[in-house]
């Protein structure tokens, strides 16, 4: 029998880590002995367990340890991570380690070092000169990069569910339902936002054009002006319709005030793009006095950065749109590691894109009238996202009211 | 060739009645000559057309005239309606006339008489003694009833779309979309409600339990107290969860204030039913001081009648619930002909039930977060219903704000 | 300190029973010592734990034990259940025990007796003469009934998730998603159905009218003929449109073959009701040769019973419909305890109604194109239902193909 | 009074062109006289009308004529189009003409010339040397381009609805509903596909990754092999998961055969990208024998071109993906004008992108389980798209069966 000692510690009962571990071991055909087991009795106390994991061959033992490492189990007798070189740009050695979006450390040169810029489905690249480890997507791997392979010396720290309820993120499960008391949910989100801002935290807003179509662009503009938003991730549609709305009072040709279709209104979004093209950029349009209000205007005025990522369905697009999606991803990555909270509004595309590069510790809220959007986000691995099934057109005004009260 | 002269008048251009008529005639294999055609030039002006409808045989001519009558065409040379006796309770003679939900008159004893209590998919029964005509569902037909058959002497007056936009019902098409400026839609509905109440009109609310689950029961209670609601159509679930919420602060065991699940809370709706069963009825529970707030409480206190219709999924049910669905339909019919506006909230079952017995002139709004509810309502024939895809938990507070401003 | 020993046994690790128990105790403010803990090592082995539960007062201890009993914990030192009389029809003593839908036993006269006809949200009534215990809904409680109160002497046996995957019910979580390999899911359901029938089990089908609208009525009719269906739960709409389809080839006036609207077709469902009213009942219509095919026809021909429950939106209804919903529930209860598997198709109303009275051991599948239906079913407590988000119009033909192969 | 004669001809009664024209004139505050009116009596006959449009000022008259031109009205007394130069790349002169997606001609140098590459929301650029007119999106406008402005000399030929039903596109309205006989709809689509292929037409498939997730990739692969598909528009996700499925039998880590999650399976799509990166491209992977089946394999083997457009949420992406979305649009434009039919499957993003550049005469089908996708497509202007709400996992196998029968 091949065996290895592993340790689990933290809220391993409440977070179901221990039973999951035992379950995994046996599902995979291994066996275990519980060597130590100490349960924390009080809320906040942590528990410890030491297990002897056994398997009939080394390969199986490795596979079991691999699985266990993803839920935070650490091999007691430590070895350094194993590294292999990439032989060609954008390619990986066999048995490369694929990251989770949880904080991760590797044991290298006999000490634990934090993997920087962690995000899911990426690789860990070690820089031998600086003794630092970086998370890199496959598209950024260069020939010669030293890539972590196998399973030794990797420690993942998944989020835990400590006892006692703390806020909106603990109180709401990720199950999206429209049959919940929305007023109290909005109050909790508002408290959370204020709390993040009070401690100097950063909030990202990811938004689709429905914010403009439903008449809520002035609300989001106010939130930016009032300092609740630190970065905007969106696409050409949000910016174009926001500018259309600021210049002509319509969104997709429909009057934002009355909801009525405006004659020739379907040309307005092209007019809007034309005006920004004439000015040269959104910033120049604000500076020259062409653009005087709205979401994009407030971003410029309040130095709130935005990343407008191109999409295959774009009209125009605006000159500020990054039409190469990989460049746009890189631009988003510059902001995402510093963010404390993300509010995703009515956009499946940009929400999933953001979820893809977001570390698991960032509190995220996804607001959409379609429960499928939230479900899809969770299916893609962003399980930490709290889904709220509601109408963004009524949600934003009520949230802003609460923020200002 | 068999032929017959028919007249069309009203907004037959704007409402597309004339082209539909010509289209029908030719689709069915008939032919026509336009004998007269006068187009109203100004908004509000009506147009007239006289057509000679031709067909190769009498049967076909009849079928064409039958179709034309549904869109308001009237045969110039008048005959009385034809009547046949029912031979057995709940059965109909062949070729019975099935009603629309539009105002309908029949030519009987040489004069036009209005069909009373019009609703769709029913029969017209003539009372020879009183010279009156009534709309009756098949379940109420008695042996010996005189039932209108064939197509002569029937005039249907479908709603028209006059030029110029008038209010929420003209401005919104029945296409349900969540991407519309919801604030302005709510403003228009509020104006419409106030306008109906100012002229002494009556408003029915049809509601599902989501109103309680989303925390909006106090809002609807206030609307009742403030006189905006004249009749409530609902089921056991709305009343039970409203009472649960009034007595225990929960809805389906979830705290309505915080949205958190309450330990043992899933027993609360049975507790609520138990309390009302002990009191004898909702009214007695209010009078004895057991029930002190909420939707049902305000109904009792403000003499707003309610019809609670039983459903196969009911727990309990409350003693006030009419468990026989046909009796419940009859009870709803007592109110529906006098109603000027219906607001349907988050209930497909009761909304379709109400739509089934509603004359087409009653302005109806259906509010649901699921677009399928509205689509289904339209598919079932209630095309006059304006669908609003939004979250009832945010819609009602915003509507009430607007009503009180 | 008040304390009590409780035992947990079964797959308490895999089914997460033990961590849930520890979690509950501490969430409620109690404490525990683990007196014994024996983990089953092999797939299929069961585990045992004995805990000493402690609380600062008797009330709290009671509340904790109450919670623990719902997940299957049994108090080691046994007492008999406590009984109190109902003082009025349809009313309950304070602190009544509200049932789960899991198999339940009570300790009475020093022995464990099974609670018969278990379903959720009901009461346990003890018949002292026969020493039997019955599950009764509040509406059936009579003055003088002896009702179980408190928490002593009650044992709940929740379903467990043993190690290793067994079939469609284990392999599919209740998470409904349309992005799963539907062909293999259908294969598994077909195997499950065949397996149930091979061992003489009974299958209930709960169906909405979409089966007819989508053109799948002949498929369901074949399934009945071939003996795959033992009981049908449905409403007036399914039966009416099935008969409309059999008599006139339309469903809601739309040709079932071509999908085109048929002129005057919206009268067909009234025609269908008229024909059955003339005959007297569906059975008489089959016997007299009026009805010659379809779902209802095959039910009559193959002695498959059906319960048609009335709903407030019914046209007609057919003479076979039970218009009193409480009577209809009682009729459904006659069949539900003997059923081994339930297939719910495109009906939220009847699916929830069936889920309400179904013991948790009955394997249930809910097929609907709208993920909200499945979510709602789970929210209402029927968590054992496996949801399949697909189109019933394509699902049934593919399932039947598989059943016949 | 300013006035102008306009002509309408075609199926102006059946297609409601005439009443819409009269309605428009009066809504905008103009007036009209009907100078001639000749109604086609037989199916297929066309009708003619000549109207004198009147308005109180020239501006208003222009606006009315502008509107009328969009539904096909032609000014009797012809003038040439007016042209203005663009003063800067990507910018337009005021009052530029924004195209519809209907066939369009301009009157230039005294003759009607067809606008080439017509698509909606674009501009008409005239090349004076060749006397040709091109449709160009704003992003392609160059300084100095001669752009059509105003409304004179433009003729739009909107699609007409001739009497009599012809096929799936006439029989199905654009209303998406899941309650339709799906079998007969599939039969009609299959006939339509065969008919297009029989006359040498081209079919484009636009597909999301759900085709792979639901296990239908082999079906689509077969359709390509059998010659039913001439071009594929998709994204990185479809190609990656198709290749993942071909290489490892999983899609997003879930076994495509059994639907069960595979241990470590979430790494498989990165493995797949890695393999293609190693090979250099999909084509090289096929040639070197790495990729041996699936959708992309059959595209390579059968010389069916594909356009893989990048998106902000892409992992990798594959080397074949065009990461600049504007370049990807240009690539799609190369194929779209020659296509006779488009089948859009489970992708809102790529479906809207394709709809944006598609001429209105191309028959389009959009298959999605979410009715919102179809609604959104129509709202964005692609009203000619027929929506089918069904499960792609069952739709494709049934369609292929029909195609092969």
Report the structural category of chain A.
alpha/beta
Average pLDDT level of chain A: 88
Report Rg of chain A: 24 Å
* Count of discrete alpha- or pi-helical segments spanning 4 or more residues of chain A: 14
Query: How many E-type strands of chain A?
Result: 19
Question: Per the principal axes of the C-alpha atoms, what is the gross shape of chain A?
Answer: elongated
Oligomer: homotetramer
Largest interface: A-D, 54 and 53 residues
Low-pLDDT residue spans of chain A: none
Sequence of strands across the biggest β-sheet of chain A: 5-10-8-9-7-6-11
Tell me the fraction of residues in β-strands of chain A, as a range: 15-25%
Helix content of chain A: 25-40%
Alpha carbon gap, first and last residue of chain A? 65 Å
How is the main sheet of chain A built? 7 strands, mixed
Structure description:
By secondary structure, chain A is of the alpha/beta class. Helices cover 35% and strands 23% of the residues of chain A. In chain A, the strands form four sheets. Chain A has a seven-stranded mixed β-sheet, with no helix packed on it. The radius of gyration of chain A is 24 Å and the shape is elongated. The interface between A and D is large, with 54 and 53 residues.
């Amino acid at each position: 029998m091949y065996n290895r000692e592993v340790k689990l510690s933290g809220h391993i009962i409440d977070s179901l880590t221990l039973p999951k571990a035992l379950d995994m071991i046996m599902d995979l055909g291994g066996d275990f002995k519980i060597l130590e087991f100490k349960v924390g009795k009080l809320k906040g106390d942590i528990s410890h367990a030491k297990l002897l994991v056994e398997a009939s061959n080394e390969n199986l033992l490795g596979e079991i340890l691999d699985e266990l490492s993803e839920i935070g189990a650490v091999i007691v007798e430590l070895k350094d991570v194993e590294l292999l070189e990439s032989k060609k740009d954008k390619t990986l050695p066999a048995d490369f380690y694929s990251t989770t979006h949880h904080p991760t450390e590797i044991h290298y040169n006999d000490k634990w070092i934090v993997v920087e810029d962690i995000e899911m489905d990426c690789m860990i690249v070690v820089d031998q000169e600086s003794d630092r480890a970086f998370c890199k997507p496959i598209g950024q791997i260069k020939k010669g990069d030293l890539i972590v392979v196998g399973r030794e010396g990797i420690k993942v720290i998944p989020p835990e569910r400590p006892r006692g309820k703390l806020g909106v993120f603990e109180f709401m499960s990720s199950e999206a339902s429209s049959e919940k008391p929305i007023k109290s949910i909005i109050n909790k989100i508002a408290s959370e936002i204020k709390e993040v801002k009070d401690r100097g935290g950063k909030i990202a807003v990811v938004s689709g054009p429905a914010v403009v179509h439903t008449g809520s662009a002035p609300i989001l503009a106010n939130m930016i002006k009032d300092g609740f938003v630190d970065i905007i991730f969106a696409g050409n549609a949000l910016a174009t319709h926001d500018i259309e709305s600021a210049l002509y009072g319509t969104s997709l040709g429909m009057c934002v005030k009355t909801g009525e279709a405006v004659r020739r209104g379907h040309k307005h979004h092209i007019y809007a793009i034309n005006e920004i093209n004439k000015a040269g950029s959104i910033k120049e349009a604000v500076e020259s006095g062409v653009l005087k209000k709205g979401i994009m205007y407030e971003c410029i005025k309040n130095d709130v950065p935005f990343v407008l990522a191109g999409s295959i369905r774009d009209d125009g697009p605006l000159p500020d749109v990054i039409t190469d999606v990989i460049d746009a991803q890189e631009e988003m990555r510059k902001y995402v590691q510093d963010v404390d909270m993300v509010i995703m509004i009515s956009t499946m595309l940009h929400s999933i894109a953001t979820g893809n590069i977001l570390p698991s510790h960032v509190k995220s809220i996804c607001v959409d009238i379609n429960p499928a959007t939230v479900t899809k986000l969770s299916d893609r691995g962003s399980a930490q996202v709290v889904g709220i099934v509601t109408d963004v057109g009524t949600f934003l005004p009520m949230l802003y009211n609460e923020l200002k009260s």
